[in-house]
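I hope you will forgive my troubling you with a question about protein structure. Could you please explain, in whatever detail you think fit, how the structure tokens follow from the sequence? Thank you for your consideration; the sequence and its tokens are set out here.
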Amino acid sequence: MSDARSIDSHSGTASPGAVASGAMTAPATMPTGEDWQVLTDSDGAAPSPPDGPVLVVGTRKGLWLLGADTDRSADGWRVRGPLLLGNIIQHALVDPRDRTTLLVAASTGHLGPTVFRSTDLGRSFTEASRPPAFTTGDRLERSVRSVFWLTPGHADEPGTWYAGASPQGLFRSEDDGDTWTPVDGWTDHPMWETWCEWPEENTPDGSMLHSVLVDPRDPRHLYLGLSSGGVFESTDGGADWAPLNQGCLALFAPVPDPEYGHDPHCVRLHPLAPDRLYQQNHCGIYRMDRPEGRWHRVGDNMPDDVGDIGFPVELHPRDPDTAWVFPMDGTDVWPRTSPGGRPAVYRTSDAGESWTRLDLGLPARGWFTVKRQAMAVDSLDPVGVYFGTTSGEIWASGDDGTSWAPVLAHLPEVYSLEVADPIER
């Protein structure tokens, strides 16, 4: 794909050119289009763009934007979409450094795995002129099946991005996502075949590289997660890597505490306290405090009848002791739905020493599945917490997760949800 293509955001085809606390309410119907629409029973143009958080929602069949005012009132949400209709959107987010560039990791019927870029909040898109791909003549004959994860680079490196792929490749762009090259220190590492699932893959949806983290103090200090494979760290900008899994269990492995071979589902680094990391793993919830290189299973403090298995973990933007998780059933058959059909978010305010169940407004019975990229928080006070389900529902809380209300239903399966504060609305 040597030529960038302009994409009509509504059709997805190439063209020539938080919520107040209270009782649960019914989710709004879903208008379509490229302009903001009010979430009411009848479609209509919003009187003004939202001035609060914007949710960037990737689904199995396209991209949607949900916007709220700063008070995040239940009747103040607007929607735009579908955008890139028909494309599988694995991940999409607005660059927090310029608050303008929207990158979308997509799998398309006619273009294959690629990245789209927009600088007008999805009113138009341009495909990357050189999407993430392994080097021509790759000795292992690897080819990218999907671009799975996107991470903006360091604040001192504007225009840089990282992408994680399936199979487990790491790629970097230095021009706002237009051209991508492999991070050779990872993709050609002599241990890559040992660390990664290759050529046999045991992860149900295929092996993937995710949770690319950049230390805000040092652009050369990077982390990444492999499903399966474990957590890995680089201190030289990706030229070399080492496993970082001590203390983490891998109960499915021949030995329960190997050096690598674990299955982290999501890893987060606190932006104001970057020595504090959290991990939601196939085998529990963990916390690490550097410089110690050991994970501690704080999920042991979750209720026994709920467990500490799930996919996402999200951190309070100002308090490194506060985090949210969405537990899912991790019993023998691994149904990956709310334990006992009773959905709830759990919050810790003491770095995992204790957890509080938060289910006010959520259905008493529901078998929710929330993927690793489908939960996010905003930066307001109190913090807004949001999640999307594989059944196409978006839920929001405007009070640190204490109470919940549905924002939108009947979307396609939600793959990702990120919060943005874009300049252009």
Summary: Helices lie at 184-187, 192-195. Residues 13-32 have pLDDT under 50 and may be disordered. The CA atoms of residues 195 and 229 lie 6 Å apart. Residues 184-187 form the longest helix (4 residues).
